[in-house]
Amino acid sequence: MRDIEVIQNFALSAAKAEHVEELTRLFVLAITYFGFKSFCCLSITDFVQPDPNSLDIVEFPKRWTERYVEKKYFESDIVLKKIGHSTTPEDWSEYEDISPEQVKILDEASQFGLVHGVSIPIYVPGVLPTIVSISGENKDVDPISYPILYVLAMYFHEAILRVKGYKNYNEYADLKLTQREKECLRWVAAGKSDSVIGDILQISRHTVHYHIENVKRKFDLPTRMQAVVRAISTGKIHP
Fold it and tell me: What is the tens place of the pLDDT at every residue in 131-147?
């Protein structure tokens, strides 16, 4: 199966899912294709007194999760420290100049099968910042898969917001996009630049940019990829 097919299959299945448990199963199935087997989806919030709207979906080994909370590892976890200042996937193996305590946390995690991991930050206006951490025992994961995992994480996050009825999310289902906006989004989803999309649609790249920015504004989202994900998740376009 090609990487793009993994994304398409997950996007279509996630859009139909009605329960968190179903979405969790589908996501685990998708990340297994890339050599991972467990994940968590957490709002970046106070771990002692979390925000009532926070996301807390943990599919890591139970014994590790209990130990992590009991030892209050969240207070010094290098992943949490770094992810708050990042907009791109963070590879756990690339951290340098970390404290002995942080090394200890990573070493202990590996004893529970969390040998290699990547953490993905997701920012959506009006929603608590979210971290999706994906992990497994395979050390030989190709970094080229990280952008794919990023997209999968965004689809998962969108589906979770929908299922939980988060912040009137379902209102986006009634939002209207113009035909040209949909056309531009479809080509963005295919990885095309504004210039290439302009050539395909026989309009200027500035016009393409205008339509994409309109969609971002309508969806209240900061990036074009998030706009694509939401358009597909709400049935405006198809992957």
Answer: 999 999 988 888 888 89
* Phi-psi sector, 159: left (phi>0), alpha (psi -120 to 50), beta: alpha
* Contact assessment for residue 130 and residue 157, using Cβ atoms and an 8 Å cutoff: yes
Helix H or strand E encompassing 201: helix 194-201
Q: Residue 41: in which H helix or E strand, if any?
A: strand 38-43
pTM of the full structure: 0.90
Domain 3-168 homologous superfamily, CATH: Transcription factor LuxR-like, autoinducer-binding domain (3.30.450.80)
Q: Cα–Cα distance between 137 and 96 in angstroms, integer? A: 21
Kindly state the tokens that stand for 94.
């690339």
Q: Give per-residue pLDDT as tens, 24-52.
A: 999 999 999 999 999 999 999 888 888 88
Domain covering 175-233 in this structure, CATH number: 1.10.10.10
Amino acid at the residue 124: V
Cα–Cα distance for residue pair 111/17, rounded to 1 Å:
33
Local structure of residue 92 (DSSP, 8 states): G
DSSP 131-150: EEEEEES-S---GGGHHHHH
Domain boundaries, the chain: 3-168, 175-233
